[in-house]
Amino acid sequence: MDIIKKIGNVIDESSIIKGDDLKSRFYHIWKTDISLESICVLLPRNTEQVSEIMKICYENNQEVIIHGGLTNLVGATKSNNSQIVISLEKMNHIIEIDTDSKTITCESGVILEDLINTCKEKSLLLPLNFGARGSAQIGGAVSTNAGGLRVFKYGMTRNLVLGIEAVLPNGTVISSLKKLIKDNSGYDLKQIFIGSEGTLGIVTKVILRLYELPSSRLTALSALSSYDDVIKLLKHLEKKIAGNLSGFELLWNSTYKTMVSEKTNYNKYLPDTHKYYVFIESTGSDYENDYIKLENVISESLEKGYIEDAVIGKNDKEQTNIWGIREDVSVLADEREYDQHFDISIPTSSIGSIIDKITHELLKNKNVKTIFPFGHVADGNIHFIIGKDSDKDSITKKVNEIIYSNIESVNGSISAEHGIGIDKKEYLKNTRNKDEIELMKLLKKSIDPKNILNPGRIL
Ligand SMILES: Cc1cc2nc3c(=O)[nH]c(=O)nc-3n(C[C@H](O)[C@H](O)[C@H](O)COP(=O)(O)OP(=O)(O)OC[C@H]3O[C@@H](n4cnc5c(N)ncnc54)[C@H](O)[C@@H]3O)c2cc1C
After folding, report:
1. Is the shortest distance between the CB of 133 and ligand 1 below 6 Å?
2. What is the pLDDT of residue 372?
3. Which end of the chain is more exposed for a tag (fewer CB within 10 A), N or C?
4. d(CA 208, CA 283)
5. 9 vs 52, 77, 86, 169, 453, CA distance in Å?
6. Beta strand spans in 126-254 (E)
7. What's the confidence (pLDDT) of residue 1?
8. Which ligand 1 atom is at minimum distance from the Cα of 30?
9. What share of the chain is helix, strand, coil (3-state, %, to 5)?
10. Is 88 in the pocket of ligand 1 (CB under 6 A)?
């Protein structure tokens, strides 16, 4: 094809995957058995190549889909046979780690876990942490404004990004690579690329803010009988170990039971008969003191009746195992052939009653077989994996309707962290008003007038 010939002048032959070789490529890490549909996959090695490729695509009205680590949960990396895929996987260099300014500068294709480990070697913490960290790229995390397990202490990805370099749909390189925490010199341009799911530009480099690495990390798992107690426990922890509390994750009974069932390798630390399970992480600077503090607060919570049972991880191995239960959600998706994933935001106080109401309404539908709620309850974000015995559109719509109407009733959001992608586009109007959506469209049209970059996502 003409366009591949032109691109061949910009990148070497080995960086263009086409024809039969596309059969080994896929659009999602959970769908490796489905071959990618695309004209070709391009693997640029630097920003200049991304820019040159985009200039050619812009001139030729060529649609482009961006691939990071392919872990998103909203169908955002699907493509078709008339689209070109640009994958950032070869742009995976860490450029600088500045221990004094506490920043790391890297290309966007670096895997999140590699960044976390590199920072750790320098006694620094990159607090961004979620189950897909071994595959997700930092460019993907920035483009989806990923959240995860430590948001209520450190904020979303947006709070960690100090600088960005991005390539616009017409090939222009916008370099905003500053290490500054404060910079009010006009519009904060990097923000338009954070969380916009690759619809406004291709992120090529990032500067992230780091923290001193806490020298102690402790984990506790507790069992509770009511949602009121979940809130009481959270408040109690916030009062007693305020600065140390860095994780507070909730699993409902059905979820915990499946995650510690014989289908997984995880130890059942507590019996699977309680209504709720809370995973607690405390980080600090003095292991022995921090341990005593956590032990005391857990004992008090038992005495006050907030929790029914609890266990504290005795060593690194036990802590990793306990968090493994929470993070390994693939077992929930594997339960049924067909599933729907939700990532909703509702006020923390309403979570218990709304999830009970949604569960009750869903169970009236005989095609719904499993309901697994879990999530980052301290920041109001709950995930749902719903297993069904059919992939019929009418059933999918019914499930969406139940969940989204309940969220609307408490002024919540249909996407706390995963984004809109393709799968949730139809429901954007349930969360954003007409004027907000019009402004989004105006922004997209100004930056991508030919609608060639990640078309059909969000809007
Ligand atoms: C097991 C599991 C657990 C997860 N847990 C969480 C969680 O706790 N919190 C959370 O927020 N998310 C979570 N996710 C979702 C997902 O991991 C995040 O959305 C992640 O940030 C996506 O990164 P990625 O590199 O895989 O991006 P991809 O999936 O490849 O892409 C995501 C979107 O960003 C675009 N994109 C990718 N790279 C770039 C780039 N360089 N420039 C511009 N656009 C780009 C893509 O086109 C797409 O629209 C989880 C996913 C899984 C599978």
Report:
1. no
2. 97
3. N
4. 21
5. 10, 26, 16, 19, 21
6. 161-167, 173-176, 202-209, 211-212, 216-224, 245-252
7. 67
8. 53
9. 35, 25, 40
10. yes
| 136 close to ligand 1 (CB < 6 Angstrom) | yes
86, 142, 144, 161: residue to mutate for ligand 1 pocket, most atoms within 8 A of CB: 144
From ligand 1's centre to the CA of 323, what distance in Å? 20
Query: 84 vs 52, 60, 128, CA distance in Å?
Result: 14, 12, 30
Helices 351-363 and 227-240, interaxial angle, to 10°?
A: 150
The three-class DSSP label of residue 217 is strand
Q: From CA 201, how far away is CA 308, in angstroms rounded?
A: 50
Output phi, psi for 263, to 5 deg: -75, -15
Which class for 119: exposed (0-12), middle (13-18), buried (19 or more C-beta within 10 A)? buried
pTM above 0.90, yes or no: yes
Mean pLDDT by 10 residues, the chain (459 residues): 92 96 96 96 98 98 98 96 98 98 98 98 96 97 95 94 98 97 95 98 98 95 98 97 93 96 90 97 94 97 98 93 92 91 94 96 95 94 94 94 92 94 93 96 98 97
- CB neighbour list of residue 212: distance below 8 Å, 6 or more residues apart: 102, 123, 124, 125
With beta carbons less than 8 A apart as the criterion, state whether 95 and 116 touch.
no
Mutate to test the pocket of ligand 1, among 46, 72, 116, 205 (most ligand atoms within 8 A of CB): 72
Query: What pairs with residue 386 in β-bridges?
Result: 340, 371
Do 152 and 158 form a contact (C-beta atoms < 8 A)? no
Q: How far is the CA of 432 from the centre of ligand 1 (A)?
A: 22
Nearest CA to ligand 1 atom 53: 71
For ligand 1, atom 27, the nearest C-alpha belongs to 140
Q: How far is CA 26 from CA 65, 71, 177, in A?
A: 13, 11, 32
374 touches ligand 1 (CB under 6 Å): no
198 ligand 1 Cβ < 6 A: yes
Dist. CA 76 → ligand 1 center (Å): 9
Residue whose C-alpha is closest to residue 378's, from 357, 355, 351? 351
Q: Give residues with Cβ within 8 angstroms of 331, minimum separation 6.
A: 258, 259, 261, 263, 264
- Closest by CA to 406, choosing from 384, 375, 436, is 384
Closest CA to 429 of 408, 444, 446, 455: 408
Radius of gyration of the chain (CA): 23
Give the residue whose CA is nearest to atom 3 of ligand 1. 131
